[in-house]
Design a protein that fits this description.
- The chain is mainly alpha-helical.
- The protein has helices at about 1-65, 80-105, 115-135, 150-170.
- The radius of gyration is 27 Å and the shape is rod-shaped.
C-alpha cells in the first residue's frame, strides 16, 4: 500500500510540475508575442516611416549643401534665393510636416516614456518654420524662432530604428 501511495503521489507531483512548467512556458510565449507586436507596431507606424522620410530629407539636404544651398550667412530669410525657398517649401518642409505629424499621431509608440528632446525640438522647429513661411506670404522675412535640432535628431531616429530592428530580430 505504501508503494501505491508513493506512486500516486509521484504521479500527482509530476502532473502538477508539468502543469506549472507548461503555464510558465505559455506565459513567457504570450509576453514575447506581446513584445514582438509592440516592436512591430513601433517600426511599422512610427520609427520605420520616420527613418525613411528622414533619410530622404537628409539626402536632399546633403546635395543642397554642396550645390544650391546659399552659404550660412546668406540663408537669412531676406537673403535666401528663390531656388532655396523652393526646395525648402516644396521638398524639405512637407517631409518635415509628415514626420512631425507621425510623431504627434503615434507618440504612444515612442521608445521612451517621455518625448525625447530631439523629437520635441524637431516638432517645435517645424511649427516655427510654418510661421516663417506664413509670414513670407505677407512680405515679412524672419528666422524660425526654434532652430532645427540638427544631427541630434538624425542620430536619435537612426539609433531608435536600429535598436528596434535588433529587438525584432531577437524576438
Amino acid at each position: 500500500m505504501a508503494a501505491a501511495i508513493i506512486t500516486a503521489s509521484a504521479s500527482v507531483a509530476v502532473a502538477v510540475l508539468a502543469f506549472v512548467l507548461n503555464r510558465r512556458s505559455q506565459s513567457r510565449q504570450e509576453l514575447r508575442q506581446a513584445r514582438l507586436a509592440r516592436v512591430n507596431s513601433q517600426l511599422r507606424d512610427l520609427y520605420g516611416p520616420l527613418n525613411a522620410i528622414m533619410d530622404a530629407n537628409e539626402r536632399i539636404w546633403e546635395v543642397l549643401r554642396t550645390s544650391q544651398l546659399p552659404e550660412a550667412a546668406k540663408r537669412s530669410p531676406a537673403g535666401g534665393t528663390p531656388e532655396w525657398r523652393r526646395w525648402r517649401d516644396e521638398a524639405l518642409q512637407p517631409a518635415n510636416r509628415l514626420m512631425r505629424d507621425l510623431i504627434f499621431e503615434h507618440a504612444d509608440l515612442l521608445v521612451e516614456a517621455e518625448v525625447p528632446e530631439p523629437l520635441r525640438d524637431f516638432c517645435a522647429h517645424v511649427s516655427a518654420q510654418d510661421i516663417v513661411q506664413a509670414a513670407e506670404t505677407d512680405g515679412v522675412t524672419e528666422r524660425a524662432l526654434i532652430a532645427h535640432p540638427g544631427n541630434d535628431y538624425v542620430v536619435y531616429i537612426r539609433r531608435a530604428f536600429t535598436d528596434l530592428k535588433k529587438q525584432q530580430a531577437s524576438l
